[in-house]
Backbone:
């Protein structure tokens, strides 16, 4: 067992030029675990690759409670599980790309809330955009095709 304590700075640090800086392994429990009373429990960042990567062959790859940052997870069961007693279990945001990307079927147990926005620009080839907008005080559910055509699917009574 290695134990590190520090008043300032890292309690334990690891560095490698060609492999893992720190590696944790366990036969029956967590390989690596981070807890904090006032900061981030586990933080992963990268300037050129994935900040946090999780893989699972059997069970849950990553349980994320109040996660902030880039997560990539591959698993046979659940890749990423996010939960929060209040707020967002998993929250994605971006200014130019997709805040969430799914390459496969998407399932939900409840409903989808869609906030009114101004009509978005046309999507790329072989895409459509589903959105809601205001039309004279009434909400419209619309789809916009790559040709620029907007089709109103329903208007609030």
Residues:
């Amino acid at each position: 067992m290695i134990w590190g304590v520090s008043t300032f700075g890292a309690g334990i640090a690891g560095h490698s030029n060609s492999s893992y800086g720190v590696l944790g392994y366990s036969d029956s429990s967590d390989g690596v675990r981070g807890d904090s009373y006032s900061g981030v429990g586990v933080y992963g960042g990268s300037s050129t690759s994935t900040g946090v990567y999780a893989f699972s062959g059997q069970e849950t790859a990553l349980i994320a409670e109040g996660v902030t940052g880039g997560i990539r997870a591959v698993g046979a069961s659940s890749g990423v599980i996010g939960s929060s007693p209040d707020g967002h279990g998993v929250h994605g945001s971006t200014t130019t790309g997709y805040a969430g990307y799914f390459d496969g079927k998407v399932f939900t147990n409840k409903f989808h809330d869609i906030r009114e926005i101004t009509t978005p620009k046309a999507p790329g080839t072989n895409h459509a955009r589903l959105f809601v907008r205001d039309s004279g005080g009434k909400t419209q559910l619309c789809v916009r095709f790559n040709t620029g055509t907007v089709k109103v699917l329903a208007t609030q009574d």
